Sequence to fold (432 residues):
Amino acid sequence: MLNIEKEQKKKGTKERIRDVAIDLFSQKGYNAVSIRDIARLVKIHESSIYSHYKGKEDIMDSIITSLIEAFNIPAEINLGILPDEYDPQTLINDATMPMIEQLKNPFIRKIMRLMCIELYHNDKILDFFKNQYIEPSYTFWSHVFQKMMDQGYIREYDADLLSREFFSYCIYLLFEIFLFNYNETEYNSLIDDIMNKLSNHIKFIFDMIGLKESKD
Amino acid sequence: MLNIEKEQKKKGTKERIRDVAIDLFSQKGYNAVSIRDIARLVKIHESSIYSHYKGKEDIMDSIITSLIEAFNIPAEINLGILPDEYDPQTLINDATMPMIEQLKNPFIRKIMRLMCIELYHNDKILDFFKNQYIEPSYTFWSHVFQKMMDQGYIREYDADLLSREFFSYCIYLLFEIFLFNYNETEYNSLIDDIMNKLSNHIKFIFDMIGLKESKD
DNA sequence: GTCTATAAGTGGATAGAC
DNA sequence: GTCTATCCACTTATAGAC
Fold:
């Protein structure tokens, strides 16, 4: 029992260190934050951090693991989630909603912001972003558009190009939010703004690629 | 005469410091580079740097001035450069060519990379990027598309939205190049890749917004 | 303008008492 | 597991000799 208590206390501090580190790293960037800054906010001595982590980089590695878990992207794309009969616009809305939902979670916001900020400086983040986030998304959307074409919902067009046209804008929005329009205190209006822009983008794509008049 | 010689020598060192700083900052980021790193490469003592700049931040400020000068964006948009009769695709190509040309200049590449990397960490860069680069570009392209509509080259559509659809992708490409696909040693194939993607994007926009069959 | 010398501070990290 | 004490490498920056 006493061991379990100790274990929980230990685990608690370790997580507090990680959470404070996420706060600081996502605000100031990895390089601008010191072990001492973290220790000060956790309210333990800086040397105590080394009882939980090997060092500063070890904390960052632990955060990156959280990042990967938070996104939890399946290795293989499950296209079974796409019903055979479905209104394209609704489908896209449903598929982009998780992105909006993620933005409402402050932990995810911090961790996404950290990802954007440290993308260039951290090889592990870069690898995750390129190979586990961007690339599978392009593949996913390519399949979605191909399916829509096969079912006659949209005009025939290169599915990979369509996927790029659609999803590149989503990544652009990611950078717009976290690199050059970030305001944690007003994230509600920020989310409204993003939803509005995303909605306009989807509207544009379907105004252009939809069947409408041209089918007759 | 002797004064001029001294002046030139002084100016030479000052510029060498700035150039080395651009190299290092754009590779490692501002925080990861020390005055000593710069002095070592310029082959002067670190203290000598303070004869030319007030300190590290002063060097960065000087670089930001170069950045602003390099882009040299006019305060007011000159739509006179747009001829009245012009093939839309060619017009867009001509207007995007300067972007490609800029990428061929190694100095501009470094300074753009630095801009992307330090966007979040540096308020002056952020201000330049948002207010002097992004915003005027959106306005410019909005006017271009409006003019095309007025002349009947493209379908009627919200010009601001079209501008966003077109130019957001350009900014996305900027980040793709400098944040997550950068390779200075193979920048030739990189430029080919960018030209290809940009060309596909322009093709997409005009496949969608062009008159073609629908006018008949 | 460049150097030496040095100040004064911050950084990450470890040893050992409790 | 947390603390005190300490190390030492590295940082920006200045004063003053040449």
Q: What stands out?
A: Residues 6, 9-10, 13, 44-45, 47-48, 51-52 of chain B lie near DNA strand C (CB under 10 Å from a C1'). Residues 167 and 185 of chain B are 27 Å apart (CA to CA). The mean pLDDT of chain B is 87. The longest helix of chain B spans residues 123-150.
